[in-house]
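Sanity check. The docking grid for zinc ion depends on where the pocket ends up, so I'm generating a full predicted complex first rather than guessing from homology. Inputs follow.
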Amino acid sequence: MVCPHCRVALDVVRCCPNCARCYPVDHGIVDFAEGAYYDRFDESTALTCEHLEGLQLEVEGTRRRILDFYLPKLQAGARVLDCGCGNGVSVDLLNERGLDAWGNDLSQLRKWQWREREHRDRLVVASALSLPFADDFFDVVISSGVIEHIGVDETSVPRYGVAPRADRDELRARFLRELLRVGRTIYIDCPNGAFPIDFWHGDAPGSARFHSLREGFLPTFREIASLAPDARVEALSPYKRLQFRQAARHWYGRAFGGVGELYFRLMPRAIARSALNPFLVVEIRKVSER
Ligand SMILES: [Zn+2]
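Predicted complex below; grid placement will be based on this.
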């Protein structure tokens, strides 16, 4: 691991020989956040039943995302980062299958949750905008449901609301530059901003949130491509990435689930990048200068 400020290799006690910052290690997890977590959590924080149920549901979602969708795209033994890995389950799943998998998140809740993980030495508390890894350290970087949260202010009370910040585009461009610095192939996935319904952010899991196309929250394919001007960028069908599990709690999920599966299985790339696809999976390949 390297110092996220200096990009110099850390010594055995996780101190930087250049700037002398030392990064604390707790339960085997190195913390590069320097207190700048996006949430606040400690052992005395009481989690509600809804929150605990949500965390439980998330585990199955991670299994489907990783095992059904991303694992078949990865070469045996590849070094992989799940950037914004949340519960960290992806890192255990991929390491169990012979990949050299790492994960990061900037959350105190996640840091506490990671004590249950097997491969805690592969989990780091770090911002996606300055990662503690050397250039080209990873073959592949996966980042699911992260980009849309960069550069926006979100509220959940009394209802879900979101507004872009003035520096949104600069922060999102920095995010992609950082992923392309540490990895050769990047997969970004998120709900498609060109599609008028968002099933992933709202007042309840899987509920439909109708939004303006000028909301400034969910990116479009074109917006993501414009953030990586020197890379090869393609949209993939979200077949198997979307499995309608949470939407199945709602009438539209039950009504369209089977048809949706078929639609995604047959989806050509030209449709995958368009407003006819509710969920973007974008593959970004660094073009080598050599
Ligand atoms: Zn340093």
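Relevant for the grid: The domain at 43-286 is CATH 3.40.50.150 (Rossmann fold).
Also worth noting: Residues 1 and 133 are 5 Å apart (CA to CA).
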